[in-house]
């Protein structure tokens, strides 16, 4: 019966379903950006790298800073891979 | 135990102040001692919607800055017992509110009131963050329209990070979705996001929908909270929302179009 009703409706695709689809995409994207951690993380990473470089030479890609939420506890994880012969 | 409730949305013009006035009036009508605070410093409007604009002497900023005491600034509603309004300042700028100052005022209000309703300004800046900071619960007011839904999602993100509860690792702010200006006939024709769609996207518990209604404008014209107009659909919808908020089981109304034509009925639309 609804099929018959749809037949009489002029618009083939209604605007509400288009709105929902667009919202699902943008909201998922924006949540992803938020969950990557606080705004200061990139700057923190740069400054830490500068300190470490005073003592050992490390590449930009050798340092990783991330914020994770484990059981309601926020964990700041800092990972620095040192070169093999760091003498 | 008193509860602090923020009425927030991100986007402007979706019905935060109308909701703050209607919701706090509904709580007071049920016997709870309730105060509603206007956080929109510089653009005060709650006083107009509540119909007490000519009785403002001292305001929220005066109290925060200790230029007056709370009792001097609180306006007692003349129609509803147990209902008080704390108006915003019209002349100061929004940075007049400090986290510490607001905290003192809320702590003092908690000694005397069951519910403290905070009417947030639009946006995600200082004023909006002050309004949500001490909240225990949040009414996220959303219109069935793309920009409002997106902004609500942003506000939900802030409730989870920029509040006292988030910072102190307390239980999170309890969020409630409240959809305003809902037009079930337009949902039926596929031209408006449905309450189900919005719930699915925002993923917070649904408190109810307020139908689009001429009586909301008429009530604001007269300075009467819409909850006092029990003949209107919107007024009844707010009463339902207050009841559900207080834990009563009330079936959803106003989610489907009222009258259907013969053709629509025949075809099961």
Describe this entry's structure for a reader.
- The complex is a heterodimer of chains A (87) and B (269).
- With 87 residues, chain A is of the alpha+beta class.
- Helix content of chain A is 47%, strand content 18%.
- Chain A has a single domain (20-31, 38-86), classed as Cell Cycle, Chain A (2-Layer Sandwich).
- Chain A has a two-stranded antiparallel ribbon.
- Chain A starts with a helix and ends in a 7-residue tail after the last strand.
- With 269 residues, chain B is α/β, with parallel strands linked by helices.
- Chain B is built from 13 helices and 8 strands.
- In chain B, helix 1 crosses helix 12.
- The longest helix of chain B has 14 residues, at 16-29.
- Chain B is globular and about 65 Å long.
- The mean pLDDT of chain B is 94.
- Classes of the chains: A alpha+beta (87), B alpha/beta (269).
- The A-B interface holds A 1-2, 4-5, 8-9, 11, 14-17, 19-20, 22-24, 26-27, 30-31, 34, 72-73 and B 145-146, 149-150, 153-154, 157, 169, 187, 189-194, 197, 200-201, 264, 267-269.
Q: Give the strand content of chain B.
A: 15-25%
Biggest sheet statistics of chain A: 2 strands, antiparallel
Instruction: Kindly state the percentage of residues in helix of chain B.
Output: 25-40%
- Write the CATH homologous superfamily of chain A: Cell division topological specificity factor MinE
Q: How many extended strands of chain A? A: 2
Family (chain A): Belongs to the MinE family.
Keywords (chain A): Cell cycle, Cell division
Organism (chain A): Candidatus Venteria ishoeyi
GO molecular function, one term (chain A): identical protein binding
Topology:
The complex is a heterodimer of chains A (87) and B (269).
Chain A: H1 2-8, H2 15-35, H3 41-53, E1 63-70, E2 73-80
Antiparallel strand pairs in A: 1-2
Chain B: E1 3-8, H1 16-29, E2 34-38, H2 46-50, H3 60-64, H4 70-73, E3 75-76, E4 83-86, H5 99-110, E5 115-119, H6 126-133, E6 137-142, H7 146-159, H8 164-167, E7 174-182, H9 184-188, H10 195-202, E8 206-211, H11 214-222, H12 233-245, H13 262-266
Parallel strand pairs in B: 1-5, 1-6, 2-4, 2-5, 6-7, 7-8
Antiparallel strand pairs in B: 3-4
